[in-house]
Amino acid sequence: DVKVTQSSRYLVKRTGEKVFLECVQDMDHENMFWYRQDPGLGLRLIYFSYDVKMKEKGDIPEGYSVSREKKERFSLILESASTNQTSMYLCASSPPWTGGYEQYFGPGTRLTVT
Amino acid sequence: GNSVTQMEGPVTLSEEAFLTINCTYTATGYPSLFWYVQYPGEGLQLLLKATKADDKGSNKGFEATYRKETTSFHLEKGSVQVSDSAVYFCALGATGGFKTIFGAGTRLFVKA
Asked: What phi and psi, each to the nearest 5 degrees, are found at residue B83?
């Protein structure tokens, strides 16, 4: 079974803090994704990566950055957390033969910024 | 642009009832279509998919048919169980790769 793990299930941070969300997958997938999930809005793509050290902006990249130094690990960084970044963050990975569409998700990190 | 619209929830059904969750899409080209399910406290899981017109995806008793003429991909199940209570997301794989467009999700409650 594909396993995607995220470093924390719940996280509480203060406004202005730098926040790191880590994601690790064990299936050697090239493609990895970060989404945020908000009620009524579904999932919105923040960033994705189709290879080590490669990254592409998604639909809502403002206020976020990412790092992919190793194939199995994709990190989301909030440079200066703000209250409007309180959300559920989901990481996903995808094998290349699906065009990035069939995605395997981690359990999510619920981030609260106070 | 590409978009997915699915029926608002929550949907509340009794056990063994018939389920339909409507999903329509707007897309250029010939997208792939998906249903994902999110059980409480978990991430999303791929439930079923269809890659071309008239394809029927099926899994765990759920079915959806890719209807290009009506741009729809409605999810159906003949007899729901309490364990089907979850949030269901319709999704579209945009032509050209990598970007999956998700609907807002429909929460299903099944009562015993």
From this structure: -70, -10
Assess B99–A contact: CB distance below 8 Å, yes or no: yes
Residue type, B37: V
Among candidate residues B105, B35, B101, B108, the one with its CA nearest the CA of residue B73: B35
pLDDT at A96: 79
Determine how β-strand B23-26 pairs with β-strand A4-6. Answer: unpaired
Strand, helix or coil at B5?
Answer: strand
Of B95, B43, B10, which is closest to residue A36 (Cα–Cα)? Answer: B43
For residue A89, report the phi and psi dihedrals to the nearest 5 degrees. -110, 125
Residue B43: which of A41, A45, A105 has the nearest Cβ? Answer: A105
For A3, A48, B19, the CA distances from B97, given in Å and listed in that order, are 22, 12, 31
Q: Does A42 touch chain B (CB under 8 A)?
A: yes
Q: For B52-81, how does the pLDDT look when each residue is reduced to its tens digit (9 = 90+)?
A: 999 999 999 999 999 999 999 999 999 999
Copy the structure tokens of residue B70: 């009506």
CA distance B32 to B11: 26
Q: What is the spatial distance between Cα B61 and Cα B79, in angstroms, rounded to a whole number? A: 8
d(CA B75, CA B110): 16
Helix runs in chain A, H state only: none
